Amino acid sequence: MKKEEMRKVAVEAAVFGVLSIALMLHRSATKHILITDAAEMPVSSVTSGKSFDLLIQKEADEDGKMKLIIPLAKSVSSEDIKLEDRYADHELLIYIDSREEGFYGDNAIVSDTDILKSAICHAENDAGSVCLDFKLDGFYANESSLTDHSTIEVEFFKPKDRYDKVVIIDPEIDKTFGGILSGAGVSENDVTLDVAQRLRSLAEKDVENKVKFFFTHITDVDIPDESKELLIKESCADMVVKIATSRSSDKSNNGIKAYYNGTFFIRDLSNVRFADIVERSCADNTGNTALGIYECDESDALIQNSTVPTVKISLGYLNGNEDAEKLATGSYRQNAAEGIYQAILDGYKEMK
Asked: Which residue among 39, 111, 157, 295 is least crowded, i.e. fewest CB within 10 A of its CB?
């Protein structure tokens, strides 16, 4: 190697080293520093069995944001953590496989907010797996991240303070014992919850449109319509989409249809128009038959009482001789989710 080339390599290496050191210093300067001498106090709650009140260490945050800082055992990685938002219940559950029994009996949660009504640690087993159950005094969205200090940082805020587009997704649940199975052995719950999760993934990957989805529930435990209606109001939702399936004793019935609220007329995006957009988009994307749109009856209280553009989309007949197999496949559900998502984007275009 020539001297000139060696000199160039040396300069590049030096520049890289300086930049690396600067980056490390910047990261070090921006790390969260926990104050350890603040008073610890338990949040008021009822304990039973292997549950106990979490210690809450009050600490004012300089940026004025509403935060929780949750310590983690050194052995915990991101794969050991699962968050479940129960927005309709004003509740956040954090499941942690810590493998250190009693960790949260000795380590406090750091908080700068008064929105907590209770904070309880539920032991999931004797090996250290726990569920941290935070009940809030109202509806708050949240964003969570892992910090360099082996903590989870949860920031709470009102949806419209952060998101321009808010949509409520309500996966319909079969309330009959065990659920009615399709000819392919899947239930309505299997279909609707899976499509809802696929919608979540689509929204998370779409950094351009930035649509925020809130789900009435993500498990097969349904909640009352009154709680869902409150969620629509508190979230300041722009639209509501109820995901469902149909059933019929006649196996020749197959196809997609939508239901709308015929009571409220909304100027920018009427319920009829929104139902038509969603039904056509899902039919086009899945290749299934479009059966049309229908006004809902009193059995669809959530649809009838909603004052924002709302639609119930049935993605097919569980017992249809064609739909049963379709509803059981991941590709059909993915296409259905993409159809709903595109319809929501098209709805926003009409609302402008």
From this structure: 39
- The answer to the question of residue 35 being in a domain is no
33 pLDDT higher than 50: no
**Position 168 in a domain:** yes
Which strand ranges, in their side-by-side order, compose the sheet holding 81-86? 51-53, 116-123, 129-136, 91-97, 81-86
Whether 335 maps to a domain, the answer reads yes
Give the DSSP H or E segment for 345: helix 330-351
At 259, phi and psi to the nearest 5? -125, 145
Q: Does residue 211 fall inside a structural domain?
A: yes
Pick from 48, 55, 74, 68: nearest CA to 128 = 74
CATH code of the domain containing 129: 2.60.40
Same domain, 182 and 292: yes
User: Which residue type does 41 have?
Assistant: M
Tens-place pLDDT, residues 187-197: 999 999 999 99
**Which whole-number Å values give the CA distances from 49 to 53, 55, 82, 95, 120, in the listed order?**
12, 18, 23, 18, 12
Question: In degrees rounded to 5, what are phi and psi of residue 157?
Answer: -165, 165
Is it the case that residue 124 has pLDDT exceeding 60? yes
List CB contacts of 4: < 8 A, sequence separation 6 or more. Answer: none
Per the model's pLDDT, the better-predicted residue between 220 and 252 turns out to be 252
Task: Summarize pLDDT for 64-85 with one digit per residue, the tens.
Answer: 789 999 999 988 988 999 999 9
Report strand pairing: 310-317 vs 239-246.
Answer: parallel
Rounded to an integer, what distance in angstroms lies between the CA atom of residue 30 and that of residue 32? 6
Q: List the domain range (segments joined by +) for residue 187.
A: 161-351
Query: Which SS3 state, helix, strand or coil, does residue 238 take?
Result: coil
Tokens of 137: 């005094």
